Amino acid sequence: MEKIKLHYLIGDVHMGGHDVHRVAINNKILLEEAGAFDILMVCDEPSIGDMCFDTYFAGDLIKECQVLVFNCGNYRFNIREEQERLEQAVAEGAGFVFLHGDHPCYWKAIGNSAWEGAERMAGLLWREVTSHGDYGEAHIEIDLPEHPIMKGLEAFDTKDEIFCNCENVWNVPLQTLASAWSDSRVISRHGEPGTGKKEPIAVTGYYGKGRTFNQLLGHVWPYYTGHGLGENTMLSFSPRQFRQMFVRACEWVATGKVEKTFAFDGEAKLR
């Protein structure tokens, strides 16, 4: 079986908040267990990356990839030439997977440098009206059960952080695959009530010829902040369906199908 060329781009996001290194290590385990991917980890931390960003962009490796998993932000991915090369790769057909925690990046209002291309690829972003309740129990509903990524997956419970009122800044066409109810009766420790509506936790779109997937679940913080018990663990990665969604999405954005990863049951020993 010919494997899908997947390039996983890892850098600090949101002022170094989310534990993107731990997330990358465990996502790689899931991708390896699925057995469908030829994985290249790009990170300036040598214990995680197969190569650093300078080496990656010194050549034309990005032209060979079929899917880019993006877990970066202004604090690493801010060189315009590199941004343009990523935009071109996706526009010409490479898939793009955007992960939890990237969402405030490239927002000028908080002092970041804008990047329209990344915002269009992501679709939904954290902006002024966006909020989240405490990290805690959530129920995930499947909205498009016939979509290749979701086919056969059942609704599930998880412990995670649910983003509310994310904005489609550029009004790009999106499909919501799954969502979580935000209870307006629940007040977060920040004094913010839930929205009283369904909030998307997995959406798809397009950027040129490239398919995109925005994963709004998967909160992992480096330490306990008092925000919610377990936020500094891999609890948000526990549900089998969450793991399957991520792995299947990586195939779907690359090929438009879910065949090589369909049998993956989500079983893996994470760190």
From TrEMBL:
Residues 56-224 form the ThuA-like domain. It comes from the Bacteria. Pfam families: ThuA. InterPro entries: Class_I_gatase-like, ThuA-like. PANTHER family: GALACTOSE-BINDING DOMAIN-LIKE SUPERFAMILY PROTEIN, SECRETED GLYCOSYL HYDROLASE. This is ThuA domain-containing protein.
